[in-house]
């Protein structure tokens, strides 16, 4: 369906159709003509070409947000929701792409003609260079503190170290790490585990015992049983969902939290506050991250005066009854 079809059905010129559908001002059109064109376009299912609009305006209104092949848990879901809302206030639409399969990223951005590309993990150098050469601003984030200065950093290793430091401060001397079963979040889990290991070494403690825990009671019970036999008194979980499974496993084994074992998660999701006992967690500044990334996109597009300053408080401990 083309604008010529709409013009022919409406009994007007293609120029008139263009004026109406693009809401062009300063042209003499009657309200009756405008309504006839809009009604005809709607009835025929006509949709203006996004690439054509981009050529006319100089840019599209699409921000391509690229995620690696991660699971979309509560933290990422909230980040995307806040980011989408912030950019929508400036007339921009977020298109989320999860990097699954073997299709090159270049095929995607060339097809959708985004005005900017945002990555929640670093891009391959050749991809970033190709996008910049095509005139597309590239904004990135990173998982740890080895990123470039202008890239937003969420230091995952420091999160793991904070978990272990807190457990040690509560008198726990033998620690375990409850890892996720899903390999798609290994980029996060491995860094957090490295932080736990580094903290144990710093405190002169043995290596943490690492066990993958699925989100069911049977898996958690097996893990807790093994840890208890090895004298574990503190568990740092990959995130709050895994930590909640550990709490269920502790109950199933007839043990007490925090009497027998203390448990700490990551993300401070709403369920952590109503768990029994309430779950200690590492809060991440999801709202501030979304605000920063949206502002960085706007600055890259010239829609904001200055690039944003990264937030000071990226994560901190929220202590509750589980430790």
The radius of gyration over CA amounts to: 26 Å
Assign an overall shape.
Answer: elongated
Distance between the termini: 63 Å
Average residue-wise pLDDT: 88
> Which strand order does the major sheet show?
7-6-8-9-10-11
Q: What is the helical fraction, as a range of percent?
A: 40-55%
Uncertain parts: none
Count of beta strands: 11
Quote the beta fraction. Answer: 15-25%
Structural class: alpha/beta
Q: What series of H and E elements makes up the topology?
A: HHHHEHEHEHEEHEHEHEHEHEHE
User: What's the number of helices?
Assistant: 13
Main beta-sheet annotation = 6 strands, mixed
Mind explaining what this structure looks like?
This protein has helices at residues 3-10, 14-21, 31-44, 50-57, 74-88, 105-112, 125-133, 156-169, 186-202, 217-229, 240-252, 270-273, 286-300; strands at 62-67, 93-98, 116-119, 138-142, 152-153, 175-179, 209-212, 234-237, 262-266, 280-284, 315-318. The longest helix is centred in the middle third of the chain and has 17 residues, at 186-202. By secondary structure, the chain is α/β, with parallel strands linked by helices. α1 (3-10) packs across α3 and α10 (217-229) packs across α11. It is elongated, with a radius of gyration of 26 Å. The termini are far apart. α5 links the parallel β1 and β2. The strands form two sheets. Strands 7-6-8-9-10-11 form a six-stranded mixed β-sheet, with helices on both faces. It has a five-stranded parallel β-sheet with strand order 2-1-3-4-5, sandwiched between helices. It contains 13 helices and eleven strands.
Give the topology, please.
Blueprint: H1 3-10, H2 14-21, H3 31-44, H4 50-57, E1 62-67, H5 74-88, E2 93-98, H6 105-112, E3 116-119, H7 125-133, E4 138-142, E5 152-153, H8 156-169, E6 175-179, H9 186-202, E7 209-212, H10 217-229, E8 234-237, H11 240-252, E9 262-266, H12 270-273, E10 280-284, H13 286-300, E11 315-318
Parallel strand pairs: 1-2, 1-3, 3-4, 4-5, 6-7, 6-8, 8-9, 9-10
Antiparallel strand pairs: 10-11
Helix pairs in contact: 1-2, 1-3, 5-13, 8-9, 10-11
């Amino acid at each position: 369906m083309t604008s010529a079809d709409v013009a022919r059905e409406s009994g007007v010129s293609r120029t008139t159709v263009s004026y109406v559908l693009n809401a062009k001002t300063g042209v003499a059109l009657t309200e009756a003509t405008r309504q006839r064109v809009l009604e005809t376009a709607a009835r025929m299912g006509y949709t203006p070409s996004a690439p054509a609009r981009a050529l006319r305006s100089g840019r599209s209104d699409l921000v391509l947000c690229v995620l690696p092949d991660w699971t979309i848990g509560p933290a990422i879901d909230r980040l995307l929701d806040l980011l989408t809302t912030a950019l929508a206030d400036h007339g921009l639409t977020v298109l989320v792409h999860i990097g699954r399969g073997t299709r090159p990223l270049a095929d995607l951005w060339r097809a959708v003609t985004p005005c900017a590309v945002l990555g929640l993990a670093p891009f391959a150098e050749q991809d970033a260079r190709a996008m910049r050469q095509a005139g597309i601003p590239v904004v990135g984030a990173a998982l740890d503190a080895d990123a470039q200065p202008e890239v937003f950093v969420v230091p995952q290793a420091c999160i793991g170290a904070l978990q272990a430091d807190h457990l040690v401060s509560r008198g726990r001397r033998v620690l375990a790490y409850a890892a996720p079963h899903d390999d798609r979040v290994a980029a996060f889990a491995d860094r957090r585990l490295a932080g736990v290991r580094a903290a144990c070494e710093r405190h002169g403690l043995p290596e943490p015992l690492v066990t993958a825990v699925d989100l069911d009671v049977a898996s958690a019970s097996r893990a807790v049983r093994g840890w208890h036999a090895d004298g574990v008194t503190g568990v740092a979980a990959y995130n709050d969902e895994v930590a909640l499974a550990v709490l269920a496993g502790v109950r199933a084994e007839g043990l007490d939290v925090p009497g027998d074992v203390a448990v700490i998660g990551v993300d401070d999701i709403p369920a952590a506050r109503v768990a029994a006992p309430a779950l200690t967690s590492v809060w991440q500044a999801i709202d501030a991250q979304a605000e920063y990334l949206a502002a960085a996109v706007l600055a890259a597009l010239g829609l904001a005066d200055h690039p944003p300053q990264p937030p000071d408080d990226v994560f901190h401990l929220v202590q509750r009854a589980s430790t």
